[in-house]
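INTERNAL AUDIT FORM
Audit reference: QA-55
Scope: verify that the stored structure record matches its stored sequence.
Auditor: D.O.
Record contents follow.
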Amino acid sequence: MRISTLEGDPAAGEELFQKDCAACHGGRGEGAFGPDLRGAGVLGGAYLYEIILNPHNGIALAGHPPRMPELELSKEEALNLIAYLLSIKDSLAVRKRAEGALAKLAETP
């Protein structure tokens, strides 16, 4: 299954994230009780879809709960949440590139 940001609504996904996920994963996905999700997009949409709908299939990470709780989301809600997670990855990458460019400008005489 190929998942792209076009298949979900990132704004609706962010609302869902804030309601159901932020308590464990942080308000911006930076991690708290649950792991940092800002780079979760590299896992691919199909993997995220599977983990969101079937969290018992996930991999436990050291220092984090053994698995994510079952949220009982619809397919549409899962796709919206994935679209949001992919947008976090994209904005993080853009910010890192911008920070690198600003650092180079600061070093230029």
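Auditor finding: record pair retrieved intact. The radius of gyration is 15 Å.
Action required: none
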